[in-house]
Amino acid sequence: MIDPKTTVYIPSHNYWKYLENAIESVLLQTVDNWELIIIDDNSTDNTSEVINLYKNDERIRSFSVPGIGLPSVCNFALR
Q1: CB of 8 within 8 A of CB of 35?
Q2: 59: nearest Cα among 18, 31, 78
Q3: Closest listed residue to residue 54, CA positions, set 30, 41, 36, 70
Q4: 38 or 3, higher pLDDT
Q5: Most-buried pick from 9, 29, 34, 36 (CB within 10 A)?
Q6: Distance CA 57, CA 75 (A)
Q7: pLDDT(1) > 80
Q8: Domain 6-78 - what CATH class?
């Protein structure tokens, strides 16, 4: 991917029920040249399975962090 113009990030901690809809919402946008960062904050549900559905899309990157909490996850995404 070449320097995306727009970055969207989705923090998730046990929100697998909503994660696929959130990802699909980003995919449906009409803006070109974007990236999506998904941060799994130590989920114990099916979050990783949902993320794996999109692993072949080069515009989407995912990270796992060890339960650092929402403010730290947001700071992680911004870095």
Answers
A1: yes
A2: 31
A3: 36
A4: 38
A5: 36
A6: 24
A7: no
A8: alpha beta
- By residue count, the chain amounts to 79
**Contacts (Cβ under 8 Å, ≥6 apart) of 3:** 33
Per DSSP bridges, beta strands 34-41 and 6-12 are: parallel
CA distances from 19 to 1, 3, 8 (A): 23, 25, 13
- What mean pLDDT do residues 57-71 have? 97
Predicted confidence (pLDDT) per residue in 7-47, tens digit: 999 999 999 999 999 999 999 999 989 999 999 999 999 99
Euclidean distance between CA atoms 64 and 17, whole angstroms: 18
